[in-house]
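Raw record, unedited: EamA domain-containing protein
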Amino acid sequence: MVSSGAKMNDSQNLIYAFLPLVATSMYAINVHIIKRYLQDIPALSITVGCFTVLMIPATLVLLFADFFTAENLNDTATQTAIGYIAILSVVGTGIAKILFNRLVQISNPVFSTSVTYLIPVVAFGWGILDGEQFGFLQIVSGGIILLGVYMANRKKKIKKPTLKESALK
C-alpha cells in the first residue's frame, strides 16, 4: 500500500505510513508489561495511570491547536461533537481498556491480543446497521481475520507416548 501510494503521489511524507507499525509494536510491549510487571495492580488503576500520563500531551496538542478559543467552545456543533467524543472516550475507550487490562491479567498475552482482531468484525456489524454496502472482498477479509485468530489460539495436541513406545526408545 505504501509503495503504490508513493507511485501515485511522490510528494507525500511516507514517515506517517510507518506509524501504525510503531503503534503495533508499542501495543505488544504494553501487553507484556501488564502481564509481567503489573499483574497485582487492579486493571482500573492501570487504566487511570495510562490516561493520566496521556492527558499531558493531549492537553498540549489542544492548546497549540487553538481548541480553547471562545468561538470553538460556544459553537453548538462543537459542543455536540465534544459530548459524543466524551461518550466514546468513556465507553469505547475507558471501559474497554479496563476490561482489556483485566483480560491480559487473567489470560495469556496471545489470547488477549487476539481479541483485538475482532475489531474489524464489529466495525463490519456497525457498517451493516448504518446501511453501508459491503462486497465479497470485505467478507473474505473478515473471514481471514477470524481464521487467523483461530489459528493463533488453537492448542496443538501433543501425543503422549505410551509405555510401550517409551520402552522402545
